[in-house]
Amino acid sequence: MTYDLVIIGAGPGGYVCAIRAAQLGMNVAIVEQRAAAGKPRLGGTCLNVGCIPSKALLDSSERFADAGRHFAAHGIVIEAPRLDLGKLMKRKDQVVDQLVSGIAMLMKKNKVTVLSGRGELLGSGRVAVLAADGARSEVAARQVVLAMGSLPVEIPALPLDGERVVTSDQAIAFPAVPKRLVVVGGGVIGLELGSVWARLGAEVTVVEFLPQILPFCDADVAAEVQKVLTKQGLRFALGTKVTGCERRGDDMVVKAVGADGAAVEFTGERVLVAVGRKPCAGGAGLEAAGVALNERRRIQVDARFQTSVAGVYAIGDLIDGPMLAHKAEEEGVALAELLAGQKPVIDHHLIPNVVYTHPEVATVGLTEAEAKKAGRAVKVGRFPFIANGRAKAAGEVDGFVKIITDAATDRVLGGAIVGPRASDLLGEITTTMVYGGSSEDIARTCHSHPTFSEAVKEAALAVDGRALHA
Questions:
Q1: Homologous superfamily (CATH) for 165-275
Q2: Global pTM?
Q3: For residue 282, what pLDDT is reported?
Q4: Residues that are catalytic
């Protein structure tokens, strides 16, 4: 049969696109290669080996750390907690399985046909499906969407073996807590998984090529995060270039050149390579079909997500922009609506970014440095959580809220939060920016007391130097 829409890849972009297209009356099929026990595993990297399992581990490890380090301050006296890593991992897997099953039910509810196998683009309107048993079939489609996501970047100096030198795929399922873990890469993935294993007892060293962690953040934000994580036991080697790795007994030794030019070594039972991700476009027949790539080796698309091949579209990690699940979801919805004749709008400058360390880090819009580099005169408001009543009561006093505004118009240009529930608190700043709002709009909004969100209001007040509690 001929489908209205065939989507290759059932990650956040693909499956959400499928649901929205089905809601709009299209006959949709989705092709997914990942499978287990003969059944497709929907949800992509994010759900199966990325966002969800890592957050389950972060939450479990945070509770373990709280029990061992922080309960006593609340008058809760317990014996030293004992880690059952097997049970912790089982819980993580159960969370993933439940959500995978939920997506399968959503496909059924919306009458989306799920095709199990590797999707290969044959040109306009044709997709081959190569099943695990070698069987090959073809489907026809009026429109095709490429949504295969991304995979970890490898570096020649650290050849992966899947056991000692690993990516995040394996680092979410270590069979035991390593005594020492070397994390190469001070970005989101490296800090999150480094935090997990540090909380569970590993000595973690983060090796970063750049002079600061979290390069997408302002220097003051990155410095605050590093300060807090250092207090939690993580060690950092910044401005350090990895040159090689060798095994010595039960350990792996990472060789590098430090910021001062001297040779240094870092020893760990395991090495996590977390230097970024790249589009997962191999084996999909893109080159043969004539799909053009840009200079960054991402699929070139126009404002309507159209590739160089008529009737073929691409979204998510395959195209330019941050490799984030929620960015892919927004693009999936927008594309479905465009194909249905609607006029959706996505402001790619207002896609939030979150690091789920403790405390969390959440940013949106321009950094202070980016705004100044663009020639904007800015005013900045900051408010520390140590001056927030709810944060004090909860013992969550690290970090601050930062709001960047246009000095002439007071329009909010960006925001950054290091602190408790930053991922949730950022929504107020993002919404204000979507509607072109000002710091005054936030400052004049009544916030419940006592709440963490009052720190956002106080940061808005601080733009004009009138914070009330700092």
A1: FAD/NAD(P)-binding domain (3.50.50.60)
A2: 0.96
A3: 83
A4: 449
